[in-house]
Design a protein that fits this description.
The complex is a heterodimer of chains A (710) and B (75).
Chain A lengths: L4 E8 L5 H9 L3 E5 L6 E9 L8 E7 L14 H7 L10 E7 L3 H13 L4 E6 L1 H6 L2 E3 L1 H8 L3 E3 L8 H13 L16 H12 L4 H10 L8 H13 L4 H23 E3 L7 H10 L4 H20 L1 H21 L4 H18 L2 H17 L1 H15 L7 H6 L4 H7 L6 H10 L9 H11 L4 E2 L3 E2 H27 L10 E3 L7 H35 L5 H12 L5 H14 L2 H13 L6 H9 L6 H13 L8 H7 L11 H13 L4 H11 L3 H25 L1
Parallel strand pairs in A: 1-4, 1-5, 5-6, 6-8
Antiparallel strand pairs in A: 2-3, 3-4, 7-9, 10-11
Helix pairs in contact in A: 3-10, 5-10, 7-8, 12-15, 12-21, 13-14, 14-22, 14-27, 15-22, 18-30, 19-21, 20-21, 20-28, 20-29, 21-29, 22-27, 23-24, 25-26, 26-27, 29-31, 30-31
Chain B lengths: L3 E2 L8 E7 L2 H9 L7 E7 L6 E5 L3 E5 L1 H4 L2 E3 L1
The chains are: A alpha/beta (710), B alpha+beta (75).
InterPro entries (chain A): Fe2_transport_prot-B, Fe2_transport_prot_B_C, FeoB_GTPase, G_FEOB_dom, Gate_dom, GTP-bd, P-loop_NTPase
Subcellular location (chain A): Cell inner membrane; Cell membrane
Keywords (chain A): Cell membrane, GTP-binding, Ion transport, Iron, Iron transport, Magnesium, Membrane, Metal-binding, Nucleotide-binding, Transmembrane, Transmembrane helix, Transport
């Protein structure tokens, strides 16, 4: 039996080192996507097995399945595991499974292993974290374990890559075996279970007892079973008086009874085991009633300082260079429509995107360091009671913090919250957290109205205002969650139960990869939208209905016969923009946004940024570079400073800027977020409710701010 | 004397799990390694008194809410 393309799946408890092993196996040959039909993120990669004895090389595809404690899912994420492993027709159904096991906690980890083994797939056990076990004075005898479990056991160190080639070879050897050894079940059915199993096996033509049992217990989670099939299984459950909850508890206890002697035989411990010393010492501080919160607050402050102060150096550099590049291109290309489209439309729009690369890279880097080190779990613990007061869960902290980067992946991480109610609330309020797409808007408006002075000698005033806006987003999210929890009724109790991983040094390669990946997806996804909108916008603002633009120009020239050329040029450009298609749009919605302090030019930017808020700054750049004097290229900020309102005063007064800032704190202006909420909540009800309440909130708050300040 | 539960442990106190009072909760707890006969110890209490962190069988640290801990009966 020779296969050219082999598929293997990685399964394991959370924190067992599954993802680390995945990286060690595949290196950079990996990609992220979605499992078909569901939005659970799928990480897959590949490696090559060198052929021996004249056999050809083989490509092995590795799929990293979500971490789980058992085959019975407790959250949306975990249900993917059995949906694949119980369905041989699934495109990701593996030829073999590697179960990654934490050697320092063998008993609990073996529970999942025995379940996977009973499904009848060729299985290899990868014994990881032997170093942690050693520090707990535990030694594991891998040979003894392999004999007891009747599967290949490979000792690995996923972090250093030790044992990984051996593991790859073991996969190859296992698949080359001519005949499968008879499966030894770790759980033996009792009572009338065997009769039930036989009937299900016959009905569905299954040859594995445990898969049949899974059909009985989990058929509502199996996407591949049609409704009539599920109903038929329900009648069988009644016929055999099968008690699901009782069975699950009995099965788990029976498995532990089998596992106990296996662990006793293969693990030697010297004295009482204990968690590593540094973890216990760090927990004393990080979970401390006072120092725990102080540390968390300081870490948050550092993140915001980094995003605003440290990132400003590379950002200024990018800003100057794009401006220089645009004016150079303007000169070198022949003047005309094409030149204008490339420089004023495309290049200006793209410049508005790439400038935010440093901030996004830094933010994702820091968040991934917090997750890698094990600190994020502590944050969930110290925040759980606070979060519960608002109807959320300690686990909501991760989506909320990730929401600072981007609401789309953040909403996808809510799948680890097992309570549907708490999960829905988290999804509804996560978009209020200020995401990185709002940073461009915040940065530019803050730079306009807040001086860059030092406060208390260390904090930058602009950084503090930025912190304030993020805090407003957080407060808005929490208060909304609380209000929504009063309206949306809870149907089930929430779980917290969370394993606290030991503290570890972050894997820097992985942190680097996360930074690279986030920047790449931002530039590609946001970049495409922005590029398209920039071009459309340029066309709409360069052309008008009929000869309206020509007429407007002539009108200005007749009205100002003796004006100096420069002033006349600016007036003509502005009049042309106003009579263009884009200008008409802006004029059309101006009455609605006047009370917030915005004019028709901001109106154009608001409309354009409806699909994606990061378009706002690029749009402003395009609008003002068209309406401005085209001889020299200014940065967007310089243009905004020069912009005048109807009465000849500066357009961007503090009142207008704050009104815009507040509007963007709350407004749900992101098609991708609406799309992900639609997928995660399976319908249009919640995304539409969310869109409506956030838009009303944004409008009312911006209105109040402008009216109070002006 | 009524049955004690994990939620009544003092900091640093050890106890052995005897049984569970909530069927659904017990499934999750079993999967997390809280098996009858297993020794647990209260390691830490979150700043606001809830959740708590218990050490399970000397192997690892599990954090759970007080209402979850109160379903674990101890000897």
């Amino acid at each position: 039996m020779k296969q050219e393309n082999i598929k293997i799946a990685l399964v394991g408890n959370p924190n067992a080192g599954k993802s680390t092993l995945f990286n060690a196996l595949t290196g950079l040959r990996q990609k992220t996507g979605n499992f078909p039909g569901v939005t659970v993120e799928k990480k897959s990669g590949s490696f090559k097995l060198a052929g021996e004895d004249g056999k050809p090389d083989r490509d092995v595809t590795v799929v990293d399945l979500p971490g789980t404690y058992s085959v019975y899912p407790k959250s949306a994420d975990e249900s993917v595991v059995m949906d694949i492993l119980a369905n041989p027709k699934h495109p990701d159904y593996p030829d073999a499974v590697i179960v990654v096991v934490d050697a320092s906690n063998l008993q609990r980890n073996l529970l999942l292993f025995t379940e996977i083994n009973d499904l009848g797939l060729p299985t290899i056990l990868a014994l990881n974290m032997l170093d942690v076990a050693a520090s707990m004075k535990l030694t594991v005898n891998a040979v003894q374990l392999a004999m007891q479990l009747n599967v290949p056991v490979v000792k690995i160190n996923a972090r250093t890559g030790e044992g990984v080639p051996v593991l790859q070879q073991a996969v190859s050897t296992l698949l080359d075996k001519k005949e499968k050894p008879a499966l030894k079940y770790f759980y033996v059915p009792k009572g009338n279970e065997p009769a039930l199993i036989e009937e299900v096996k016959e009905l569905h033509q299954l040859d594995n007892d445990y898969v049949a049992l899974q059909y009985v217990c989990q058929h509502d989670n199996f996407s591949f079973l049609a409704q009539p099939v599920r109903a038929k299984l329900d009648t069988l459950i009644e016929k055999y008086e099968f008690d699901e909850t009782g069975f699950l508890a009995d099965e788990t206890i029976a498995r532990y009874k089998t596992i106990r002697p296996i662990v006793d035989k293969s693990v030697k411990s010297e004295g009482a085991t204990e968690q590593p010393l540094w973890t216990r010492k760090l927990d004393k501080v990080l979970l401390h009633p006072f120092w725990g919160y102080v540390t968390f607050a300081v870490i948050l402050m550092v993140i915001f300082q980094a995003i605003f102060a440290w990132a400003s150096y590379p950002m200024d550099w990018i800003d100057e260079n794009t401006a220089a590049l645009i004016s150079w291109t303007k000169e070198i290309l022949p003047a005309g429509v094409l030149n204008d489209l490339i420089t004023d439309g495309i290049m200006t729009g793209i410049g508005g995107v790439i400038i935010f690369i440093p901030q996004i890279a830094i933010l994702f880097g820091l968040v991934s360091i917090l997750e890698e080190s094990g600190y994020m779990a502590r944050v969930m613990v110290i925040m759980d009671k606070v979060m519960r007061k608002f109807g959320l869960n300690g686990r909501s902290v991760v989506p909320l913090i990730s929401g600072v980067a981007c609401a789309v992946p953040a909403i996808m991480t809510t799948r680890s919250i097992s309570s549907r109610h708490e999960r829905l609330l988290t999804i509804l309020v996560t978009p209020i957290m200020s995401c990185s797409a709002r940073l461009p808007i915040y940065s530019i408006l803050i730079a306009l109205i807040i001086p860059s002075t030092k406060v208390l000698g260390i904090f930058n005033m602009q950084g503090l205002v930025l912190f304030g806006l993020y805090f407003l987003g957080l407060a808005g999210a929490l208060v909304s969650a609380w209000l929504l929890s009063l309206v949306i009724k809870r149907t089930e109790p929430g779980y917290f139960m969370l394993e606290m991983p030991t503290y570890k040094l972050p894997r820097w390669g992985h942190v680097g990869f996360m930074m690279y990946d986030s920047v790449k997806s931002f530039v590609l996804q946001a970049g495409q939208v922005i590029l398209a909108i920039s071009i459309i916008l340029w066309v709409l603002s360069s052309y008008g209905p009929g000869d309206s633009m020509q007429a407007a120009e002539e009108k200005v020239i007749t009205a100002m016969p003796s004006a100096p050329a420069e002033e006349l040029g600016a007036a003509v450009a502005s009049a042309r923009l106003e009579s263009s298609y884009a200008g008409s749009f802006g004029r059309f919605i101006e009455p609605a946004i006047r009370p917030l302090g915005y004019d028709w030019k901001i109106g154009i930017a608001l409309l354009a940024s409806f699909a994606a808020r990061e378009v706002f700054v690029g749009t402003m750049a395009t609008i003002y570079s068209i309406s401005g004097d085209s001889e020299d290229v200014l940065t967007v900020k310089q243009r905004l400073v020069q912009e005048k309102n109807d009465k000849g005063g500066p357009m961007y007064t503090p009142a207008v800027c704050y009104s815009l800032l507040i509007f963007y704190v709350f407004a749900m202006m992101c098609m991708s977020t609406i799309a992900v909420v639609y997928r995660e909540t399976h319908g249009w009800k919640w995304p539409l409710i969310q869109l409506a309440y956030l838009m009303v909130l944004a409008y009312v708050s911006a209105f109040a701010v402008y009216q109070i300040m002006s | 004397m009524s049955v004690r539960t994990v939620s009544q442990l003092q900091k640093g106190e050890k106890a052995v799990i005897r049984s569970f009072s909530d069927r659904l909760m017990s499934l999750k707890l079993l999967e997390m390694g809280c098996v009858p006969g297993c020794e647990v110890r209260l390691d830490a209490v979150a700043p606001l008194g809830d959740p708590i962190c218990i050490n399970v069988g000397g192997c690892y640290s599990l954090s759970l809410r007080l209402n979850e801990a109160s379903t674990i009966e101890i000897e």
